[in-house]
Every structure is written in structure tokens, then in C-alpha cells.
Automatic annotation (TrEMBL):
<keyword id="KW-0812">Transmembrane</keyword>
<keyword id="KW-0811">Translocation</keyword>
<dbReference type="GO" id="GO:0005886">
    <property type="term" value="C:plasma membrane"/>
</dbReference>
<protein>
    <recommendedName>
        <fullName>Protein translocase subunit SecD</fullName>
    </recommendedName>
</protein>
<keyword id="KW-1003">Cell membrane</keyword>
<dbReference type="InterPro" id="IPR022813">
    <property type="entry name" value="SecD/SecF_arch_bac"/>
</dbReference>
<dbReference type="InterPro" id="IPR048631">
    <property type="entry name" value="SecD_1st"/>
</dbReference>
<dbReference type="InterPro" id="IPR054384">
    <property type="entry name" value="SecDF_P1_head"/>
</dbReference>
<feature type="domain" description="SecDF P1 head subdomain">
    <location>
        <begin position="240"/>
        <end position="351"/>
    </location>
</feature>
<dbReference type="GO" id="GO:0015450">
    <property type="term" value="F:protein-transporting ATPase activity"/>
</dbReference>
<comment type="subunit">
    <text>Forms a complex with SecF. Part of the essential Sec protein translocation apparatus which comprises SecA, SecYEG and auxiliary proteins SecDF-YajC and YidC.</text>
</comment>
<keyword id="KW-1133">Transmembrane helix</keyword>
<feature type="transmembrane region" description="Helical">
    <location>
        <begin position="376"/>
        <end position="409"/>
    </location>
</feature>
<dbReference type="InterPro" id="IPR048634">
    <property type="entry name" value="SecD_SecF_C"/>
</dbReference>
<keyword id="KW-0472">Membrane</keyword>
<feature type="transmembrane region" description="Helical">
    <location>
        <begin position="421"/>
        <end position="444"/>
    </location>
</feature>
<keyword id="KW-0653">Protein transport</keyword>
Length: 535
């Protein structure tokens, strides 16, 4: 156990050196980091919301809006199916979460029901990913030719779950493009999303960015009558009046000529002539073809750029736009243009999000927490140092050197993994200070037991490491299993932050407290050839 080959010794020392390399940026100022070579590791441990302050927002998916949109989609699908099958119908209507209609010929009832049931899809089990056996809608018919399509509770629940998952990914993309530190985004229950953004002290901008659905569409402006006439009288059935960003009403066709789903890029910029902020956009192949076709047949007509049922601008098509690219202008500020580009690049939310709770955590609370954590770490480290030196002497010094390396490696792993350090995480660091020397205590006590039985110093040292290995592995493996369960089932960010620190501490403890300490003692034995155990 005390023999180390040159290769093994080199591997241990190289591992420690690499760990120090990744840990060093955590003690350097941002200015010093900028002057480091590009090849040198520069990642740092991210401080959580409770340490550096930031914005905390709890969002809720708008359930009624999601159900309404799903029902409207079902209505459009029913129209398409019956039109394709050439089945006449009337009185197509929406009733909460159902669609009803009456067939002109009751003899078509069976055929219509068969075709409409093809719209139903199996509900996927959220836990296992397989079908639960339920369908997302049911189709029933009456003797008078009425047909009812009813969305099921299981289907609506699955739709809500899917909307939350999709919203989390879109929210993450939007926040990432703000250039802030790593956000904490997680599901809360069935329909809520918790968003914590450390370092962002402007919750209003975050709310504006997350609150917009960002559904972009390009529609033609209806010139058959003025918007004022449509408001005073009755708008054409295929058109609607939408308010513009400037407060002016626009009569816009309901038909979407090109959807924002066909956008592949959007970037803020400045108009070459007026120098006002704009947003340049680019379509994929499908969107470019549709945009070109619309612009070719509508030269001289205005078309509306609509974002979340608000007209951003309504320019006149002067000539066909064949390149699949264009720009949006609307008296934006620089920040508004940048935020709009972020929204368009990240994609549209599947449903509106409502702010349920919001708060801003100031950096002063974080500074107090960091100082309290440092004080606790200093006190714990001091007590451990005094105990190990007083009880185990030189071997206690070896254990303390391993403890220092353990802390360095733990922070280097957090830097590499991009982990967020929270106040519970600091508690985990303090806890691992005691745990890191616990393995050495077990080893040293085994050595004493062997020495009492009459073994020589070198034999007692070697046997102490051999006998302690099983105990150390059992203790750390059971602790690791508990930490993994805590991480998987903890749910909230602070709990999982503690679990991450705990897991990393256990892994580095196994390396430093057993391997590194054994390496130092092995070389000390080789150098001194002790006749008596120095503890």
C-alpha cells in the first residue's frame, strides 16, 4: 500500500496541478482574468441569487388561453378534414373545450366520425414516455347529425405539461441571450415556472422579456374600408382591427401569410438612411418562398408585421422581396430593438405567462451571507487544524495539506461544471471540511491499533491503510447514494445546490484523504525509515 510507481505519482501530482489551474480564476479579479492567456482556464464558480442578488420571478402558464388555443386548433383541423372528405356541415361552434357541428346529410355521420377520430392522439405518460392508453379527444354523434369533439382532461393536462417544458426551454434561450450569469429555471407544480437570475437587478426588463408570447406573423392590410369604419360598423368577416404600437388602429386580414416560425435569425441594427434602430430578420427556405410569393402579388399594398396581436409596423411593399430577408422598424429604442431580436430568435411561447410572484434580492444580503460563510469556514478550519496537529502531530499536518487540496479541487470541479454556489452550498463546503479529515482519523486510529498489537512502525502504517480502506469506501458510498437521492428528489434550487457541493466534496475527499495522504506518508517513510509511529 505504501509503494507508488513513478507513473502513479506523476498522475496524482498532475491531477492536483490541473485542479489548481481551474481553481485559480476564482480568486482573481475580472481585470486580471482578461489578461490571462486564452488557453488558460478562466471559468469561475457562479454565485447564486442569495449571494450576489438578482431577480426572482414565479410564472404561471395561462391555462384558459392554452385551452382556447387548443380548441381553436381543433376547429381548424375539423374544417380541413371535412373539406377534404367533401362532407357538408353547418353550425360549427366552440363550447369551452369542445367543438360541435351539424352535418347537412345525417347519412354522412358514420364516415365523419371515423375520419374525425383520426385527429385523436394517445396521451403520453410523463414519467415513462409511453402511451397511457387514453386519447386527447373523444368524438360522439347524435341521431340528428350532430357531432361533438371533446378534449379530454388527460389530453389537456398533457398539453399543459408540454407547454411548461417548451416554455422553460424558450425562457432559458431568452435569458441566455441577455448575457447574464447562469439562470435557475425549474418547474413548480403542473403549470408554474420559477425563474431566478443572479446579478440582474432590473426585474421589469426580465418581466417584459418573459411576459411576451412573441408570436410573430405577417398579414396583409385590408383596404376595403378604413379601420375607423370597421370599428363603427362591422368589420369584414375575414379581417380584424388590431391596435398598432403607435396607438393607431389597423384593419388586418386574419389569414397569416408568413409565420414567425419560419424565422431562422433576427439581429438588432440601424437603418442605413435614417440611422434609427431596426431589427433585421431572415427566413428559412419555406418562409423565403412564401414571403417572395406574397410580395410579388402584393406590390403597392401595405402588409402588417404583427407581434402578439399588435401591429409593429405596416410598410408598403415597393417591390418583390426575393432574398428571404427584411427588416422591422417601429421607432424603437436600442434596447427595444435588442429585446425584440432576442424574442424572435428564441421563438414564441406556446401560451402566455402570468407573473404570480416577483422580488429583487439586493447584493447586500449576499455580501452578509458570504461573510458569514467565510467566518464559519475559518472557525471550522481553525478548530480542525488545532485538533489534527494536537492529536496526530506530523501525520495531522499531512492530513491538513490534503484538506487544503480537497477544497481547491472541489472549487475547480464546480468551476468546470458551471455549478452555482448558493448559501446552502457554502454550508456544504463547511461540512466537507470536517468530512475530509474523517477518513484520515479512521486511518490513523487503525495504525495505532496495529502498533499496540506489536507491529513495527512501517508495518502498522501499511496495515492501517489496508484495514481502513473498506470502512472509508462503505461510509463514502452510502453518503454518496444519499447525496444523489437528495439531488434528484430535492426539487428546489438551494437543496440541489447543497447536494451538488456534498457530492463533489465526497469525490474529492476519496482522492485527497486516502490517496494524497498515503502518497505523502509513503515518501516520508521512504525518507525517514521510522522505528516508531509518530502519532
Amino acid at each position: 500500500m505504501l509503494h507508488f510507481s513513478r507513473l502513479k505519482t506523476t498522475a496524482i501530482l498532475v491531477t492536483i496541478a490541473i485542479g489548481m489551474l481551474f481553481a485559480v480564476p476564482n480568486v482573481l479579479s475580472p481585470g486580471m482574468l482578461d489578461h490571462l492567456p486564452s488557453w488558460l482556464a478562466s471559468s469561475r464558480v457562479t454565485l447564486g441569487l442569495d449571494l450576489q442578488g438578482g431577480s426572482h420571478i414565479l410564472l404561471e402558464v395561462d391555462g384558459p388561453a392554452l385551452r382556447k388555443e387548443r380548441t381553436e386548433q381543433l376547429r381548424d383541423e375539423v374544417r380541413r378534414v371535412l373539406r377534404d372528405q367533401k362532407i357538408g356541415y353547418s353550425n360549427l361552434a366552440l363550447r369551452d373545450t369542445s367543438v360541435t357541428l351539424r352535418l347537412r346529410d345525417p347519412n354522412d355521420t358514420q364516415k365523419a366520425v371515423i375520419e374525425l377520430r383520426k385527429l385523436a392522439a394517445p396521451v403520453t405518460n410523463a414519467l415513462f414516455g409511453n402511451s397511457s392508453g387514453e386519447m386527447d379527444l373523444t368524438v360522439s354523434s347524435g341521431s340528428d347529425g350532430t357531432v361533438t369533439l371533446q378534449l379530454t382532461d388527460a389530453g389537456l393536462t398533457a398539453k399543459m405539461r408540454s407547454a411548461v417544458d417548451q416554455s422553460i426551454e424558450i425562457i432559458r434561450r431568452r435569458i441566455d441571450q441577455l448575457g447574464t450569469v447562469e439562470p435557475n429555471i425549474q418547474r413548480q407544480g403542473l403549470d408554474r415556472i420559477l425563474v431566478q437570475v443572479p446579478g440582474l437587478q432590473d426585474p421589469q426588463r426580465l418581466k417584459n422579456l418573459l411576459g411576451q408570447t412573441a408570436k410573430l406573423s405577417f398579414r396583409m392590410v385590408d383596404q376595403s374600408m378604413s379601420p375607423q369604419q370597421a370599428l363603427e360598423g362591422r368589420a369584414p368577416p375575414e379581417s380584424e382591427v388590431l391596435k398598432g404600437q403607435d396607438g393607431q388602429p389597423y384593419l388586418v386580414e386574419k389569414q397569416v401569410r408568413v409565420s414567425g416560425e419560419d424565422l431562422v435569425d433576427a439581429q438588432p441594427g440601424f437603418d442605413q438612411n435614417s440611422r434609427e434602430p431596426i431589427v433585421s430578420f431572415r427566413f428559412n427556405n419555406n418562409g423565403a418562398k412564401r414571403f417572395a410569393a406574397v410580395s410579388q402579388e402584393s406590390v403597392g399594398r401595405p402588409f402588417a408585421i404583427v407581434l402578439d396581436n399588435q401591429v409593429i409596423s405596416a410598410p408598403v411593399i415597393r417591390e418583390p422581396i426575393l432574398g428571404g430577408a427584411g427588416q422591422i422598424s417601429g421607432a424603437f429604442t436600442v434596447q427595444q430593438a435588442n429585446d425584440l431580436a432576442i424574442l424572435l430568435r428564441a421563438g414564441a411561447l406556446p401560451a402566455p405567462l402570468k407573473v404570480v410572484e416577483e422580488r429583487t434580492v439586493g447584493p447586500s444580503l449576499g455580501a452578509d451571507s458570504i461573510q458569514a460563510g467565510k467566518t464559519a469556514a475559518y472557525v471550522a478550519g481553525g478548530l480542525v487544524t488545532v485538533f489534527m496537529l494536537a492529536v496526530y502531530g506530523l501525520f495531522g499536518l499531512f492530513a491538513l495539506i490534503a484538506l487544503a487540496v480537497h477544497i481547491i479541487l472541489m472549487f475547480s470541479l464546480q468551476s468546470v461544471l458551471g455549478a452555482t454556489l448558493t448559501l446552502p452550498g457554502i454550508a456544504g463546503v463547511v461540512l466537507t471540511i470536517g468530512m475530509a479529515v474523517d477518513s484520515n482519523v479512521v486511518i490513523f486510529e487503525r495504525m495505532r491499533d496495529e502498533a499496540r498489537e506489536g507491529r513495527s512502525a512501517i508495518s502498522a502504517i501499511d496495515k492501517g491503510f489496508v484495514n481502513a480502506l473498506g470502512t472509508i469506501l462503505d461510509a463514502n458510498i452510502t453518503s454518496l447514494a444519499t447525496a444523489v437521492i437528495l439531488f434528484l428528489m430535492g426539487g428546489s434550487g438551494p437543496v440541489r445546490g447543497f447536494a451538488v457541493t456534498y457530492i463533489l466534496g465526497l469525490l474529492t475527499t476519496m482522492f485527497t484523504a486516502y490517496t494524497l495522504t498515503r502518497l505523502m506518508i509513503a515518501y516520508w517513510v521512504k525518507w525517514r525509515r521510522p522505528a516508531k509511529l509518530p502519532i
